[in-house]
Each structure stands twice: as structure tokens, then as C-alpha cells.
Write a structure and sequence with these properties.
Shape: elongated
Number of strands: 0
Mean pLDDT: 90
Largest sheet: none
Distance between the termini: 60 Å
Order of helices and strands: HHHH
């Protein structure tokens, strides 16, 4: 049984298909919900736990999304 699963995964990779769970960001309507939730978070209207529930994702996933959306810090001219 395991050999067939591994063979199927290798075949899918060779064909260029993604193997594994799809990312949260590819769910239908995610971009619109993310924009609204992010605005609510920045305004302090909802907590991070509430935001994760609104996006139907885990708390750690929300933290990764927030970290990725932050602008990169400017390099100091020291």
C-alpha cells in the first residue's frame, strides 16, 4: 500500500502537480477576507484569535501571514 502511495506522489511531482495540502491563501475568496481581517486587526477591532477564526485557519498560520505582510525594515545608514 505505502509503495503505491509513494509511487503516485512521485508521478505527480514528475508531472509538475503539487503534492500535499493546498495553501490557505489559495482558498476561494481568501484575498477579500484577508484584506478585511487585516484592516480590523490593525484598527484593533478584533483579536488575532478572532481573525484566525474569520479566515478559517490556525493561529500560527495567521502569524505567518501577518509576518509576511509586514514591510521589510529599512537598513540603517550607520
Amino acid at each position: 500500500m505505502r509503495e503505491r502511495v509513494v509511487a503516485g506522489m512521485q508521478s505527480a511531482k514528475r508531472e509538475g502537480r503539487r503534492v500535499g495540502r493546498p495553501p490557505v491563501t489559495t482558498r476561494p475568496g481568501f484575498a477579500e477576507r484577508w484584506a478585511a481581517v487585516r484592516a480590523d486587526l490593525e484598527a484593533g477591532r478584533i483579536s488575532r484569535s478572532e481573525a484566525a477564526r474569520c479566515l478559517d485557519c490556525g493561529h500560527a498560520t495567521l502569524l505567518r501571514l501577518l509576518e509576511a505582510s509586514r514591510p521589510a525594515p529599512a537598513a540603517s545608514a550607520s
